[in-house]
Amino acid sequence: MMNHVVKIKKGLDIQLEGAPALEISNSTNSQLYAIIPDDFTGLTPKVDVKPGDKVLAGSPVMHDKTLTDVVVTSPVSGEVVAVERGERRKVMKITIKPDATQQAVEFGKVSPDTMQASDLKALLLKSGTFAFIKQRPYDIIANPNTTPRDIFVTAFDSAPLAPDYAFVLKDEMHHLETGLKALARLTPGKVYVGVSKRSPIEVKNGETVVFDGPHPAGNVGVQINHISPINKGEIVWTINALDLLFIGRLLETGHVDFSRLVAVTGAEVNKPHYVRTCAGASIASITQGMVKPAHYERRYISGNVLTGFNAGADGYLGARQAQVTVIPEGNNCNEFMGWASLNPHKYSMSHSYLSWLLGKKRRYDIDARIRGGERAIIMSDEYDRVFPMDIYPEYLIKAILAFDIDKMENLGIYEVAPEDFALCEFVDTSKLELQKIVRNGLDHLMKEMN
Amino acid sequence: MKALKNYIDKIKPHFEPGGKLSMFQSVFEGFESFLFVPNTTSRSGVHIHDSIDSKRTMTVVIVALLPALLFGMYNVGYQHYLAIGELAQTSFWSVFLFGFLAVLPKIVVSYVVGLGIEFTAAQLRHHEIQEGFLVSGMLIPMIVPVDTPLWMIAVATAFAVIFAKEVFGGTGMNIFNIALVTRAFLFFAYPSKMSGDEVFVRTGDTFGLGAGQVVEGFSGATPLGQAATHTGGGALQLTDILGNTLSLHDMFLGFIPGSIGETSTLAILIGAVILLATGIASWRVMLSVFAGGIVMSLICNWFANPDIYPAAQLSPLEQICLGGFAFAAVFMATDPVTGARTNTGKYIFGFLVGVLAILIRVFNSGYPEGAMLAVLLMNAFAPLIDYFVVEANIRHRLKRAKNLTK
């Protein structure tokens, strides 16, 4: 059967230097592993361990305050070193020193086809793999007490320098397919798998929908909007194909395996390529020996340049991330009269700089500077050009800023996540923090509605 | 550059809160960020940003205005020397110098007054200085007659910046185009200085330059002014200030009397190319203003009684080349803040600007030029147009949800 192809026209592929070569090396041993509650948006952490406790891979380290069944488990076996807290005692991270020989909790091999759906859900919850499933509206951890209309799996990442899923999944298609079988038991609706036309994969189980076009085609929100948009009152679940591997591995082997192939990318990386490591490993262990020597500051991002987290050289790989990007910080540039520049290496989607004359293939080294002051929204049609959904992004942003609930609902707040606004934020002449605005709006709305 | 940066870093503490010059903090920051791109890096959200910012945007618009401004300066001199009958024996540069000296004080006054108010408002609110007025301040001298007294420009600019912009919250918050509010204020407050035969050609000298007597048969009426006052029926014959017949070619090139920057359709189109190539202005708006103007001109050609409405005789191309139509289409209607913001809305907004501009020209003989008023009027309706466009999206979303519950 010919798969349905959805053509995405709006969007932008920012061509950055430092794309990963299709080669794999092993990371050095990470001294510590970290579990970061902020990686599980919507989870209010109650920590189950204290420093000195022994844990196995798959042992719970924290759970949600209200949805107590949702637990996050340790990726490795070892000893809890610290529970670090920030302002107002917010849990920042839990660090674990790994054992020399790794042991994992035995959950038992099961077949997702024959198991009771409720037992299957309980197993996913207990193993900590359920915490990787998100829900829309609100783009938060899924509530296991709800039944989603459909489940959407994105099986490609279109963000700058993102890992090539066809390459990463090559030897693990069976895990993915087992995971898809499990998801099918959790919804009365369909399990959709969004794949890329540029780097296609053949997936058994699930409804495959092919997407062709620039970033953000790989965003699950864009895929949902084109396949079957979310209406008020509906809930769908979403999960990334690389996170779904955790579920597949659990069901096939009987224990958790949070190992990952991470694309180490960016202009500051020498020979960017894939590194085999594990969720929660230190950035240092992943990037060891790969970062170019330099006398200026660098930014170590867990994830991609649009939605990743500034982890720092001493930080940790986020639970959901399969990419590390290292770019120059750029805080020492002192660029003279940049607004008058005719330099074609200054990147802009608009044609107001000369970079467009060099063609679309050219790769750029962009540092972390904001390059302008914050202003009221002046330019129109800027967000729309990189927002391929049937939504007026500017009007939605304004409704969020005014916190007009009716308007937010009417304009499609339930369909979006902060990541969908990342490109808008990148191209914004007015330099507004759009992802933060959307996240705050969603959090605020959730409080209001529940 | 390094020495300059060091100097700025050295004096910076004086401007920070508690420093002895802290009352000028916004101004200082304005100049600092003008000279050096701030080294501030992103704290939340995306880690990289597009190079474009509002400084760049405004710079591009100003560059796009330059052809029309430079031509306007030359044309001021050209019309002057033509009027005193000395064009043939005056060099290109003398002609330009005359115009340059006539226009420069207007630019200076507009910027000094407007930016002065902007700087003060920014400082009072402890905001960064915003760049919007860099464009407005350039537009204002370009849309007034050359003989507008400087004090009027100062008063009108102050009125527009304070009451059309700052009270609404500054750049990006205004409902009406600032330059057009300035123009409208001038027109309604000092009508005798804004229209008629006396103001569009400078017949006196500029700083002692180009003194002379106007030649026999001189009339300073603009082509649209001639059309508006062409009573008694009969074929309309547009002439230059010496009474020679004007061809469409002359009107396109812009060697005709009119507001300083508006006469040359060619120079304005060069600006349009810059705006469209850089993507700063919306081609949707620009295109639909011209489309609206052409459609309305044709309707007037066909149906209006030329004996009562003489301007109805003008062909669509003449309508576009004369007066402020092209300037309004390229530089005024495309203002993203005061125009329609949705793509569908832009077509409607632009088209109606074009239609109204010709409608006012033809059917209101008291006001020979309609382009500027048309844009102002549509500024008021732009939010309404967008409202209906966005409402359609909302209805479509609600319908989708309703179908589901059935």
Keywords:
heterodimer; A: 450 residues; alpha/beta; OB fold (Dihydrolipoamide Acetyltransferase, E2P); Ubiquitin-like (UB roll); 7-stranded mixed β-sheet; 10 helices; 20 strands; globular; B: 406 residues; mainly alpha; 3 domains; 0% strand
User: Which strands sit side by side, in order, in the main sheet of chain A?
Assistant: 1-14-13-12-15-10-11
How many domains make up the 3D coordinates of chain B?
Answer: 3
Measured by DSSP, the beta-strand proportion of chain B falls in under 5%
Shape of chain A: globular
Structural class of chain B: mainly alpha
Name the assembly state.
heterodimer
Secondary-structure element pattern of chain B, one letter each: HHHHHHHHHHHHHHH
Give the number of DSSP strands of chain B.
Answer: 0
Cα-atom Rg of chain A, whole angstroms?
21 Å
Tertiary shape of chain B:
globular
Return residue spans of chain B where pLDDT drops below 50 for at least 5 consecutive residues. none
Q: How far do the termini of chain A sit from each other?
A: 43 Å
Helix percent band of chain B:
55-70%
Main β-sheet of chain A, in a few words? 7 strands, mixed
CATH C-level class of one domain in chain A: Alpha Beta
- Alpha-carbon Rg of chain B, integer: 23 Å
Number of helices of chain A: 10
Question: Structural class from helices and strands of chain A?
Answer: alpha/beta
Question: Order of helices and strands of chain A, N to C?
Answer: EEEEEEEEEHEEEHHEEHEHEEHEEEHHHH
